[in-house]
Design goal:
The chain is mainly α. It has 7 helices and no strands.
Length: 186
């Protein structure tokens, strides 16, 4: 009889360990899905920028510094595409700041503000920025859930031996990076 009780306890413990392991796998997959969502939205934004710049160039020929800043920031964001969330956040923060300066500068050009292509690109940019924000929140929520499981007892006893590690949050580095480019329609 005592042997059956021990066997039952071992089976229950094994099933519980499997459930914890599966929970860790699920949360790791959610983190990867969240990161993929951010990556897709950031790619959409970098793909949109050349069209926006071409539209703006004709009106803002003498605003070369602003246009170059956006181009350089886009290049940096593209090259950081395979980096860590911290590296990617830094590059994307610079791009957001440069886009904000571009949109603010463009406000001084009435003909440009009335241009249909520019208005469409502004709307598309705002939509992408909103999608990026939602993707960041999803990713950071998934990271939180994984990190809680990796650090909590008893799941940490499963996480360590099976190589589950805490994931990095996607955080912007400073307040200037946190500013979403302002799109205003007058």
């Amino acid at each position: 009889m005592f042997g059956w009780i021990i066997l039952a306890v071992v089976v229950i413990a094994a099933l519980y360990a499997v459930a914890l392991y599966n929970g860790l796998v699920k949360n790791r997959q959610l983190v990867e899905e969240g990161w993929s969502g951010i990556d897709v939205q950031l790619k959409r934004r970098t793909d949109l920028i050349p069209n926006l710049l071409e539209t703006v160039k004709g009106y803002m020929a003498h605003e070369r510094e602003t246009l170059e800043a956006v181009t350089n920031a886009r290049a940096a964001a593209t090259s950081a595409a395979n980096g860590t969330p911290e590296q990617r956040a830094a590059a994307e923060g610079q791009l957001s700041a440069a886009l904000g300066r571009l949109i603010a500068t463009a406000e001084a050009y009435p003909d440009l503000k009335a241009n249909t292509n520019f208005l469409e690109f502004q709307t598309a940019l705002q939509t992408v920025e909103d999608e990026i924000q939602m993707s960041r929140r999803y990713y950071n929520g998934a990271v939180r859930n994984l990190n809680v499981m990796v650090e909590s007892v008893p799941s940490n006893f499963i996480a360590g031996p099976f190589g589950f590690q805490k994931a990095q949050y996607f955080e912007l580095e400073n307040e200037a990076d946190r500013a979403v480019p302002s799109v205003k329609f007058n």
